[in-house]
Amino acid sequence: MSFGEPIALRVQAEMEQAAAAASADAWAGVDVEAQFIERLKAGEAAAFDHLVAERTGDIYALLYRLTEDAEEARDLTQETFLQAFRYIAQFRGDADLRTWLYRIAVNQARNRWRWWKRRRRERTVSLDAPSSDAQETTLSARLSDSRADDPEQLTLAHEREQALMTALHTLSRAYREVIVLRDIEGLSYEEVASALEISTGTVKSRLSRGRTELRRRLEGSL
């Protein structure tokens, strides 16, 4: 055996141990979530309270972007968690818990939109500030990059957000939904598809068309 072989064997063993530990941690994370879901399905109040405390901010932010109405978003956030409590027993695990909650929230926003439309008080739902070019950089990342301590840069960033909000207000609901979930919330194509209950191909198609339409409406304003 050469001088270097014991060192190489020790390094290989350490790498194998690290990989095994990482795999164990990953499985532990899966087990923890599975146990948490079982607690929810069993109707455990503490588990549901934890879910509400952990996810309320995300759900409210999503619904505010879809409605641009703080009171409406608060109301729909409560309704989202009520629906989650009612139907958690039917959760099949075909998506993670966050995506499942997003699906419920989007459906609540759609139902409210239909309710207003039926009463001839149709409101065009708006988002916060999404858009993206053909690249995969999300809008939120682009806006964050444009922010700086320089007051002038902050003012310009604010103006960009306002222009984006105005443009988003004019897009169809189908385009707004995929843009906010993909470019604002940062969901993967598969997660967006699951949340909206459409195919990934449809997600990509709507996203491409929505971004194109958004760019067209933003020409000269950014």
Number of strands: 0
Q: Give the biggest beta sheet.
A: none
Evaluate the radius of gyration: 22 Å
End-to-end distance, in Å? 67 Å
Average residue pLDDT: 77
CATH class of the largest domain: Mainly Alpha
Proportion in helices: over 70%
The structural class is mainly alpha
Q: Which sequence of SSEs, written as H and E, runs from N to C?
A: HHHHHHHHH
| CATH topology (level 3) name of the largest domain | Arc Repressor Mutant, subunit A
Percentage beta strand: under 5%
**CATH H-tier superfamily of the largest domain:** Winged helix-like DNA-binding domain superfamily/Winged helix DNA-binding domain
CATH architecture of the largest domain: Orthogonal Bundle
Oligomer: single chain
Indicate the overall shape. Answer: globular
- The total tally of domains equals 3
List the total number of helices. 9
